Amino acid sequence: xxxxxxxxxxxxxxxxxxxxxxxxxxxxxxxxxxxxxxxxxxxxxxxxxxxxxxxxxxxxxxxxxxxxxxxxxxxxxxxxxxxxxxxxxxxxxxxxxxxxxxxxxxxxxxxxxxxxxxxxxxxxxxxxxxxxxxxxxxxxxxxxxxxxxxxx
Length: 152
Description:
There is one protein chain. The chain is mostly helical. It has one domain. 63% of the residues lie in helices and 0% in strands. The chain starts with a helix and ends in a 23-residue tail after the last helix.
């Protein structure tokens, strides 16, 4: 591959990753806390089982990634579409690590949360979960949390 194409593909990966934070915020606020609240409310209520109806969103959000990677590698090779698929995959991986492993600890292990950034993300998520209804919530993003969410 040509050097400039590699650089451009890397920029596409990073841009896609950052754009998916907006996609996550928008879909969380207007879809999950909107017309698909029936799926998402399982995430705002206490329960003992490992899986929740909200986990269906992982399938929904992984579909564009799988579709792009399938098409751009097996149907018609396109490095730019592969870069978009990789960016979506990276966002999903980061989301899984931060949300499911670090914040909600679906797999029990302890991580030292000394980073102010990590503490802010976790605190914003806890503020979001302080409401158990679809209305009145705040902090819909995940990897970007404003400074107002720094714990005091």
